[in-house]
Design brief:
mainly alpha, Serine Threonine Protein Phosphatase 5, Tetratricopeptide repeat, 2 domains, 9 helices, 2 strands
Length: 183
C-alpha cells in the first residue's frame, strides 16, 4: 500500500490492530500502535475498542479497565460498544458485580445498553441461577424502550454493521436457555 504512494490511514491501522489482537499478537499490536502515533495518526474510540476487546480476550482485564478509565481523561466518550466489550469481559471473568456496575455507569453517562449488552448480562444471570433477575432485567429493558421491536444496526470497530437482536428474539433466547437448563 505504502509502496504505491498510499500511506496507511486510521482505518488501515485499526484493521491491522484488530487482526493482530484477534490472533493474540499483543506485543506486535503495541509496536504498530506506537508506529501509528509516530506517523501522526490519532487513535479514535474504535481503536480503543479494538484494544480493550483484545485485552479482555487475552485475559488482561486489568489493562483493559485501565485503558477504559483513561478514555475520559483523554477526552473520549465510551460508546455502547465500549461498555459492552467491558461488560462482556467482566462477565467472562466471573465478575458480574463489576459488570453490573459498568452497566449502571453506562446509563449514568448517557449510553443506553442495547440488546447485545442485555443478552450478555442475562446469559450470566441465568448461568448463576438468577432467573428472576434475568427476567426482571429483560422486562426493565423492554419497558424502558431499550429493546425495540425492530432490528437496530450499529457500526462495530471495523466499520461493518451488525444486526442486533429483536425483542422477540431476546425473549426466545431467554425461554430456550431456561428450557435447556431445566429452569
Amino acid at each position: 500500500m505504502q509502496d504505491r504512494g498510499q500511506p496507511p490511514n486510521l482505518i488501515t491501522y485499526n484493521s491491522l490492530l484488530d487482526g493482530m489482537l484477534k490472533n493474540k499478537k499483543l506485543d506486535k499490536a503495541l509496536v504498530l500502535y506506537s508506529l501509528m502515533k509516530e506517523r501522526g495518526i490519532i487513535p479514535d474510540i474504535y481503536t480503543y475498542n479494538i484494544f480493550i476487546d483484545g485485552l479482555c480476550k487475552s485475559g488482561r482485564l486489568k489493562n483493559a479497565i485501565e485503558i477504559f478509565h483513561d478514555l475520559s481523561i483523554k477526552g473520549y466518550h465510551p460508546n455502547v460498544r465500549t461498555y459492552t466489550i467491558m461488560i462482556d469481559g467482566l462477565c467472562k471473568a466471573g465478575l458480574l458485580h463489576k459488570a453490573l456496575a459498568f452497566l449502571s455507569k453506562m446509563e449514568d453517562n448517557g449510553s443506553l445498553p442495547d440488546a447485545v449488552t442485555c443478552k450478555i448480562i442475562i446469559r450470566v444471570l441465568l448461568k448463576k441461577g438468577e432467573k428472576d433477575k434475568a427476567v426482571e432485567l429483560l422486562r426493565e429493558m423492554i419497558s424502558r424502550g431499550l429493546l425495540q421491536g425492530e432490528k437496530q444496526m450499529e457500526a462495530d470497530g471495523s466499520g461493518r454493521h451488525i444486526a442486533l437482536l429483536e425483542t422477540a428474539e431476546m425473549a426466545d433466547y431467554l425461554k430456550n436457555y431456561m428450557a435447556e437448563e431445566g429452569l
